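User: Reviewer 2 asked us to show a designed sequence for the structure in our supplementary figure. I'm pasting the structure tokens here. Could you produce the per-position amino acids so we can include them in the response letter?
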């Protein structure tokens, strides 16, 4: 998924960089509305988790490999804007220190994986939440489906960029088949891992799942259990 230097021409790379920078700026502004005292440390943990799993590649087919994108997982746990920032931060560190994606292609990678993949996937998640019953299993299912589609969205973003400014000799039709075919398989793994992770967090700390806040029951004080009430009786 990470685009290396020189794969897309300078014009498209610069244009993508401008769009990515503007998008990250919007995410920074909006993230302040999502974060509270519990979500701030959670965002750090999510970014560290995504960084770790993106460094682990698994075989897919025909000699190709893939890794978890993690965008929808982050967005469901800490909110779409904060989740997008987590992914953007991971991409920046990977490009700067690990040569995982080129520096001149950083804008392309942020555009694909942060804005198109993460935010696009969260739009699908939010739409499914409105469509499906408000239960924990439906939250898990919606997260899994959205995560699977987010990988295809990000791959489609790459294909469009390649069509606009790709410097390789491969025909567009072959690139499309390769990108969408392989990343559809990767998306299945992304969906399963995302669903399992969201389900595990929901089971132990549902209050930490941003995308399931509506399922939390408001706290109520039972007068029969209150010491002052008992003394009054």
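Assistant: Here is a per-position design you can include in the supplement:
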């Amino acid at each position: 998924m990470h685009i290396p230097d020189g794969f897309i021409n300078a014009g498209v790379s610069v244009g993508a960089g401008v769009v990515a920078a503007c998008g990250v700026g919007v995410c920074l502004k909006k993230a302040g509305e999502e974060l509270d005292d519990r979500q701030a440390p959670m965002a750090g943990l999510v970014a560290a988790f995504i960084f770790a799993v993106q460094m682990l590649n698994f075989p897919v087919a025909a000699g190709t490999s893939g890794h978890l994108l993690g965008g929808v997982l982050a967005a469901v746990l800490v909110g779409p804007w904060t989740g997008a920032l987590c992914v953007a931060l991971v991409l920046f560190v990977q490009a700067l220190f690990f040569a995982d994606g080129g520096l001149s292609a950083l804008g392309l990678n942020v555009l694909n994986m942060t804005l198109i993949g993460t935010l696009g996937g969260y739009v699908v998640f939010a739409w499914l939440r409105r469509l499906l019953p408000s239960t924990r299993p439906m939250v898990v299912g919606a997260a899994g489906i959205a995560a699977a589609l987010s990988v295809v969205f990000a791959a489609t973003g790459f294909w469009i960029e390649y069509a606009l400014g790709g410097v390789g000799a491969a025909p567009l039709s072959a690139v499309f088949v390769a990108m969408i075919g392989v990343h559809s398989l990767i998306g299945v793994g992304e969906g399963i891992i995302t669903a399992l992770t969201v389900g595990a967090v929901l089971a132990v700390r549902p209050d930490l799942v941003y995308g399931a806040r509506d399922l939390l029951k408001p706290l109520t004080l039972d007068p029969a259990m209150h010491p002052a009430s008992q003394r009054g009786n």
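For the response letter, you might also mention the following. Helices lie at 10-34, 39-54, 71-78, 80-97, 106-131, 136-165, 172-204, 227-232. The chain is about 70% helix and 0% strand.
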